[in-house]
Amino acid sequence: MAREEKDVESPPTSSLTDWNGPNDPDNPHNWPMWMRIYHATTPGLFGFAVTFGTSVYTPAVADIMQDFQIGRTTAIVGLTVYTLGLGFGPIISAPLSEKHGRKIVYLLSSPIFMLFTLGAGFSKNLASLIICRFLAGLTGSPALAVGAGTNADLFLPRQRAIVTSMFLMAPFLGPALGPIIGGFAAQYKGWRWTQWCMLFITVAVYIFGLPMRETYKPIILKRRAKKLGISPPQSNHPGASAVKSSLVQNFLRPIHMLFTEPVVFFLSLYTAFAFAVLFLFFAAFPFVFQRPPYAFTISQTGLTFLGIGLGVLIAAITGVIIDIKIYQPQHRKAIAGGDMHAHPEHRLYNAMIGSFGIPIGLFWFGWAADKGAHWAVLVVAAVPFAWGNLCLFTSAALYTVDVYGPLNGSSAIAANGIFRYTLGGVFPLFTVQMYQALGVGWATSLLGFLSVAMLPIPFVFYKFGPAIRKRSQYPTAM
């Protein structure tokens, strides 16, 4: 009898190492749909708040030039360093989320981000502004790095396309809406109010995110084991080994993959270029619209970014439609044929159609502006560009993770992020000089020709992807 009582009261060892079966209520995959949607939406809102901070700064450049008595390029450095912080911050935040969980990273990094944003707003000289902006970007970036992991915690691979399309709106919709709000803030309240706007949005998102639960499997199991009185296993990489492992996974491996893996290099190059052109528009739009024949005010120039916002929304809808109409039938066909998943190349339809939108939008905008066309024609030209940009990036992210799996896929996405935000921070520094030297039409056309040269990349991977994957130095998941 005593033996039976002991068997009944002993907690199952499986609760420590894995879920207690497919219906384990602690598994985020089994949470109610409304709860999973909430936990997927919150990282997207954190990502929006952080990326909003890139472009909200740009309408204030003229005010900052006057306040600190500096040139335009020097003033734009405040955008560049913030963007670089977003690119390199995940090197720090990703290992923290793996050791302590997702929730604590969101809830600790956000207040630090707000403190540095507050410091930027109160800056009395250029040095303090640049330092605070860089540190704000660095400490705000976990929302972008950890968000993808949260979505993986919540949804199965076949369900992630729709969630990914919605989540990836954040790093594109934030920069699109930043100049709109920042334009009115800078024109009527001064440049410091662009930083206060960042604070207001982040505080609202932070309050919304407070009820979040932990979604990371190892942390959930560890806490459950502690609750049941089971001693958790010791880490395989204690002390300095853990630091070394994190450094390899979050910096050295991404850099190695960037220069040795064709999938990572070419998709990162293409998406980084398209993303950098988006950031280039933060300087190009004021250059075009604030001069004759348009002579827009700062706030009116900000409103022209509505075209980019509309393109981003259409791209998210496109991603959902393609997943429902094309990818899911391919997935069901693969399952019926005895495979675990559809081939990763079926993730590339979005990129293949979106790749045409980027050059169309660039040539349209460049020559319409050069000929002095009505301002609405230029605003509409931004729609296909933004649509193609997000379609491309959504496909690239999904394809990369399908090819390399969760671990190496995260390193590949990190490589993409470093490349993307580095180019995004650098491009605005030479925008005005390029437009002055070449003229609006030819400067934008140069970007259009480069995008045409990269257009075949997703088509090449669609056709030759299986052969390219076989030669990978890293284990491929599919």
TrEMBL record:
UniProt keyword annotations, A-Z: Membrane, Transmembrane, Transmembrane helix
PANTHER family registered for this protein in UniProt: MAJOR FACILITATOR SUPERFAMILY, POLYAMINE TRANSPORTER, PUTATIVE-RELATED
Organism classification: Eukaryota, Fungi, Dikarya, Ascomycota, Pezizomycotina
Membrane topology (UniProt): Multi-pass membrane protein
Biased composition (Polar residues): 11-20
Region feature Disordered, mapped onto this chain: 1-24
GO cellular component: plasma membrane
SUPFAM superfamilies named in the record: MFS general substrate transporter
Name of this chain's protein: MFS general substrate transporter
Domain Major facilitator superfamily (MFS) profile: 39-468
Natural source organism: Melanomma pulvis-pyrius CBS 109.77
Subcellular location: Membrane
Pfam families: MFS_1
Organism superkingdom: Eukaryota
Main localization category: membrane
Family: Belongs to the major facilitator superfamily.
